[in-house]
Amino acid sequence: MEREVVVVGAGPGGATAAMALAQQGHDVLLIDKDQFPRDKTCGDAIPAGAIDILSTLGLKEKIAQAGFYPARQMMMVSPHGYQFVAPFPPSEGGSESYIVPRLKFDHLLYQHALESGAEFCQAQVIAPLLERGRVIGVRLRENGAVREIHSRLLIAADGSTSVIARALRPDKQQEMHRAVAIRAYLDNFTEYAHEIEFYLYKGILPGYAWIFPTAEGQANVGLGIRLDYFRQMKGNLEKMLDRFLNMPAIKQRFKHTTQIHSLSTWQLNFGSQPVQKVYEGALLVGDAAAQINPLTGGGIYNAVAAAQFAAATAHEALLANDLSRQRLYPYQTLCDEQLGPSMHRSFLMQKWLFRFPLLVEGLIRTLGANSSFAQTFLNKL
Ligand SMILES: Cc1cc2nc3c(=O)[nH]c(=O)nc-3n(C[C@H](O)[C@H](O)[C@H](O)COP(=O)(O)OP(=O)(O)OC[C@H]3O[C@@H](n4cnc5c(N)ncnc54)[C@H](O)[C@@H]3O)c2cc1C
């Protein structure tokens, strides 16, 4: 049987594409290797811009009722300990940013995609099916058995280890456009209410450590660093996190009963490397298309925005009964025009500033929240 649209990956990118297309009356099969709710290694900061887009897809009330923990301001700490606090600017649609464990946030999106009419299948996708250079579906493993599902359009939103991108992309993601990161949760910790904290210091640049409160007394903590530098320094993420948590200013916020749990590592593909996102019969979305901001490490907004562009392009192409690369190309153009410029600026800042503790120090001390560096963290998380 041929499905109209098969979406692989039910994270923010895949769930958004699935709900947008299902709401327009398309037949959508959403596939994920995991049953939901499921965890995803992340800082859990959900930018207001992503909430704006999800609100237009019918999630406004559900998000308002979910009791998510708002993020209202950011604190940035320089290599020598200078710090400033700045409020998050209002989003165009008037939404708040939140810090929500992905276990909860992704579940809400997944449920909404199903309520919008998408059908879910828990299966591990193995590879795209190709016929004369055209993607015609996927091969997957479901309950131990391998089978094939044919599609008119395949949307690959299967994250930074995407098997679809690996099979289709003519190039590989280079190490200078990738990062590695570790995150853990702290319970019974003295958080700063509604405040996201970034720590930039020697030994972590180009990268940073974070503390993002998820509720009163609870926080998501972690750090990330560009992969090529991590390899050069022969780094160890667990030791680096341990060092961060033992810094006196952080350690004093531990209570006797503070628990560290759910430690996990994952990788990030930055949007600073141009990626072919459109193929005959297929589109890549979110981390599968390497759409993470190379300065902030934020990828949820870009994944949701790209999914919206993908759904708009796919809707027109399906109506025209033309799923050729040429007909689907407006998706690539939208991503390049709407997400490309800030990705490029962020990469320049990451490349020329972020490596040098003294430059970062000077910038934070002289311009504080007004520097385009800090503004990128405020606007492009
Ligand atoms: C440590 C860390 C911290 C981060 N912090 C933030 C943050 O605070 N804010 C922010 O905006 N971004 C953050 N990011 C980036 C963010 O997590 C991603 O950009 C975002 O999850 C991308 O969404 P996605 O839908 O493209 O992919 P994902 O969220 O990765 O979803 C992919 C889905 O595909 C499924 N899948 C994968 N392979 C297969 C397969 N073969 N078959 C079937 N299903 C499959 C997975 O189970 C998963 O559900 C962080 C990333 C890391 C690693």
Summary of the model, kept short:
With 381 residues, this protein is an alpha/beta fold. Helices cover 36% and strands 31% of the residues.
Mean pLDDT: 95
| Ligands, deduplicated | flavin-adenine dinucleotide
Order of helices and strands: EHEEHEEEEHEEEEHEEEEHHHEEEHHHH
Gross geometry: globular
CATH level-four homologous superfamily name of one domain = FAD/NAD(P)-binding domain
Fraction in helix: 25-40%
Q: Please, could you describe this protein's structure?
A:
The protein is of the alpha/beta class and 381 residues long. The chain has a domain of 190 residues: FAD/NAD(P)-binding domain, CATH 3.50.50. It is 36% helix and 31% strand. It has 11 helices and 18 strands. Strands 1, 2, 8, 9, 10, 11, 17 and 18 form an 8-stranded mixed β-sheet that branches. A hairpin with a 2-residue loop joins β10 and β11. α1 packs parallel to α3, α1 packs parallel to α8 and α8 runs antiparallel to α9. The longest helix is centred in the last third of the chain and has 28 residues. The chain is globular and about 60 Å long. The chain starts with a strand and ends with a helix. The relative contact order is 0.17. The model has no long low-confidence stretch (mean pLDDT 95). Bound molecules: flavin-adenine dinucleotide.
